[in-house]
Amino acid sequence: MDAQALKVEAAREALSHVEDGMRLGIGTGSTAEEFVRLLAEQVAEGFSIKGVPTSEKTARLCLQLGVPLFSLDETPELDLTIDGADEIDPELRLMKGGGGALLREKIVAYASRRMIVIADESKCVDMLGTFPLPIEVNPFGLEATRLAILREADLLGLEGDLLLRSDRDVPYQTDGGHYILDASFGRIPDTEALAKALKCIPGVVEHGMFLNMATAAIIAGASGVRTLTHTSS
Fold first, then answer.
1. Hey, is 192 helix, strand or coil?
2. Distance separating alpha carbons of residues 182 and 204, to the nearest angstrom
3. How many CA atoms lie less than 13 Å away from 115 in the CB half-sphere?
4. If residue 218 lies in a helix (H) or strand (E), which one and from where to where?
5. Which residues in the chain are classed under CATH 3.30.70.260?
């Protein structure tokens, strides 16, 4: 199967974990979009859910396909979130934010009792960091924040480019009006230490490491679909 077919298979397996009447966080990205399309088919057949989207892009797709949506303020406690990932390590630590929705994705995941990640096997890594780490920052004091991030990274033995994400010729803006710095640090041996250091920088809004949040990962590969949990990984 090609990569697209693998995403569909992972999304189909994830749908089997969604129960009628659930309060459901709905993720962002190409694999999550396949999940939305399958979910919409179920909804059209009478399946009932309360969906909370993690981005404006996901919201538009859900509305287009007839998936009922609510805000997180209307539904502040969720049963389950289904989302994709840019990287997944054996401990179910995630790298997310390639699509720019990391802040809302993390808020929604944190409000959920469970988070299931769906991906094709190319997203599995032994250590996070091959994919650049997205860091969402406030536009005010951008250069000061960038230098602070580089100083903290250096203390942890990390180095590499820290580039402002662009959208054509202007800085990319998240749904919340923030910018994203993509950090090409390479492999990150101590994700917890880096996460703690980044959160201490005032200009950093959020980072793309999702630590201790995923309860399971559904991975589709050439040999089929497998589910990883903390005990099985």
1. helix
2. 12
3. 23
4. strand 216-221
5. 133-206
Q: What residue spans in the chain does CATH classification 3.40.50.1360 cover?
A: 3-124+211-229
Quick: pLDDT tens for 146-180: 999 999 999 999 999 999 999 999 999 999 999 99
Token look-up 């769906």 returns 118
CATH architecture of 3-124+211-229: 3-Layer(aba) Sandwich (3.40)
pLDDT in tens, 91-104: 999 999 999 999 99
What pairs with residue 22 in β-bridges? Answer: 49
Dihedral sign computed on CA atoms, order 67, 70, 75, 78: positive
The mean pLDDT value for 130-135 works out to: 97
CB 70, CB 26: distance < 8 Å = no
Q: What is the DSSP letter of 124?
A: B
Beta bridge partners of 229: 216
**At what angle are helices 30-44 and 3-15 packed, to 10 degrees?**
50
Look at residue 83 and give its three-state secondary structure.
strand
Q: CA quadruple 190, 195, 150, 99: dihedral positive or negative?
A: positive
Beta carbons within 8 Å of 70's beta carbon, 6+ residues apart: 50, 51, 52
Q: Which fold has domain 133-206?
A: Alpha-Beta Plaits (3.30.70)
pLDDT per residue as tens digits for the range 6-60: 999 999 999 999 999 999 999 999 999 999 999 999 999 999 999 999 999 999 9
List active site positions: 105
